[in-house]
Amino acid sequence: MIPRHPENRGPRREYIEISPDEKLKLLNEHGIGVTWGSLDDEKWCLHCEKKFSGSSARIYRENGELWVECGTPDCDGSPIDFANYPWWDPNHPLTQEHDQAMGEFPDDEGYKTKKKKKRR
Ligand SMILES: [Zn+2]
Q1: Distance from the alpha carbon of residue 60 to the mean position of ligand 1, in angstroms
Q2: Mean pLDDT of each 10-residue bin along the chain, 120 residues long
Q3: Distance in Å, CA 81 to ligand 1 centroid
Q4: In this structure, are 78 and 103 located in the same domain?
Q5: Is 52 within 8 Å of 43 (Cβ atoms)?
Q6: How many independent structural domains does the chain possess?
Q7: Are residues 54 and 106 in the same domain?
Q8: HSE of 40, CA atoms in CB hemisphere, 13 A
Q9: Same domain membership, residue 61 and residue 35
Q10: Would residue 2 count as lying in a domain?
Q11: How close is the Cα of 48 to the center of ligand 1, in Å?
């Protein structure tokens, strides 16, 4: 039994060190729509709305499995919070850049064309 003090916020996590290769693998396995090329890559966290690098991300063990946590101090964001760009901030240059790129996707165009045809 681990004693838990009322003043402690959230579950107590025990962080561990793993090799850079393992860490990169874990980041890619747990991430959704986010690909890490290396630990130098920087991604965004919805939880703290900040950018962090793969090497700063924390690894902890829970129920015998390894989990990834956001690299920002005191943030317990998990891989479902990670993103390639801060999509929650429509005024951010990266988001605007991405929105523009989205409009150029052939799939998107095809969808629009189909929609138009159906209406006619
Ligand atoms: Zn975070």
Answers
A1: 15
A2: 54 88 97 95 97 97 94 96 96 92 57 46
A3: 8
A4: no
A5: yes
A6: 2
A7: no
A8: 0
A9: yes
A10: no
A11: 4
Enter the pTM of the model: 0.73
The closest of 36, 41, 47 to 74, measured between CA atoms, is 47
In this structure, the answer to whether residues 28 and 69 fall within a common structural domain is yes
Q: How far is the CA of 101 from the centre of ligand 1 (A)?
A: 26
Q: What is the pLDDT of residue 104?
A: 58
Q: Are residues 96 and 63 in the same domain?
A: no
Query: Residue 100: which domain range?
Result: 89-120
Query: What separation in Å is there between the alpha carbon of 52 and the centre of ligand 1?
Result: 8
Report helix, strand or coil for 117.
Answer: helix
In angstroms, what is the span from residue 35 Cα to ligand 1's centroid?
A: 17
**CA dist list (Å): 99 to 4, 76, 85, 88:** 45, 28, 11, 12
CA of 14 to the centre of ligand 1 (A): 17
pLDDT at 1: 56
Same domain, 77 and 101: no
